Amino acid sequence: MSTRKLRNLLSPEELRARLEAETEPRVTFSFYRYAHIPDPEHFRNQCYVQWSQLDVFGRVYIATEGINGQVSVPASKFEAFKEMLYAVDFMDGMRLNIAIEAEAESFLKLKIKVRPKIVADGLEDETFDVTKRGRHLNAKEVNELLNQDDTIVVDMRNHYESEVGYFEGAIRPDITNFRDLLPVVEDMLADKKDKPIVMYCTGGIRCEKASAYYLHRGFENVCMVDGGIIEYARQCEALGLENKYFGKNFVFDERLGERISEHVVAHCHQCGKPSDRQLDCANEACHILFVQCEECAEAFNDCCSTQCKEFIELPEDEQAKLKITTQFNGQKYGKALKASMLAKGQAKLD
């Protein structure tokens, strides 16, 4: 069967009208599983045909190393879809992370794409087996290990994620992407290969790959927070355990963060006051991600600089002319790098 035919050809307007016509709520959730998939294209086609029958919408990536998806399904069909997933051997028992605050219009159609990897890592080592991962830890086990003096805790997220929340004492490398993070952490821990290492990320997919990689590189005792920060916080609340995560958990949607504890560990990039209010600069030509307190938000009109504030106050036709030749913070450094430099005082917001 041709892959070209296995896609939705409705226009955006038709897709939105179809969603708005639905009369029952949808369940939105994410999932992933590392596994050996010999023919990702064939598996992709099978999934598309079967899932379309249950009106599944979402974005799914499939590779020879596994599957990673964020989807929504009508509530009445959730159990049927769950059974369909678990009927596949390597997905049986896979964790489904149900969204707490799902957007009703998160997805308009089903997109399933075949990619080289479900998490880009820059590795070319054919002897590396991503399925030979480290040990999963539940919240109770995480707390027990964190109470040990020789435990090393590593944040496997980007620096703008760890800026607003982290486990106390965690190593938080100043890195923008996972590809660069793997070798940096390996170098940092080169003389600690026999120590207990606990890694964590948002939902588990990055530190699971990292745990397998470090075991492959000779580390002896590598563990990970099962289900990431999301599941750890859920278990702490459900079981009445001490929550050792401070601050917010950065999330990649419009909210930009979920509060895990009342601690505010970040600071406003403009005035330096305690704040973990992350936002994109209101100037669409800049759009840099940064931390800004409420007072500075009012003073700068949700912009990262005086330059951006003055720019968005111009008439739209003048903005259109100027943005061709004007350089803003986001264009100079990119979201994450600029945010890091500002937090360290290495850059100045004009």
UniProtKB/TrEMBL annotation:
Catalytic activity: uridine(34) in tRNA + AH2 + O2 = 5-hydroxyuridine(34) in tRNA + A + H2O
EC number(s) per entry: 1.14.-.-
Rhodanese domain location: 147-241
Gene Ontology molecular function, alphabetical: oxidoreductase activity, acting on paired donors, with incorporation or reduction of molecular oxygen; transferase activity
Extent of the signal sequence: none
Highest rank taxon of the organism: Bacteria
Gene Ontology process terms (BP): tRNA modification
InterPro entries (UniProt xref): Rhodanese-like_dom, Rhodanese-like_dom_sf, Rhodanese_C, TrhO, TRHO_N
Entries under Pfam families matching the protein: Rhodanese (PF00581), Rhodanese_C (PF12368), UPF0176_N (PF17773)
Keywords per UniProt: Oxidoreductase, Transferase, tRNA processing
UniProt keyword Transferase, yes or no: yes
Function description: Catalyzes oxygen-dependent 5-hydroxyuridine (ho5U) modification at position 34 in tRNAs, the first step in 5-carboxymethoxyuridine (cmo5U) biosynthesis. May be part of an alternate pathway, which is able to bypass cmo5U biogenesis in a subset of tRNAs under aerobic conditions.
PANTHER family, per the entry: TRNA URIDINE(34) HYDROXYLASE, UPF0176 PROTEIN YCEA
Family according to the record: Belongs to the TrhO family.
Protein name: tRNA uridine(34) hydroxylase
Annotated organism of origin: Neolewinella aurantiaca
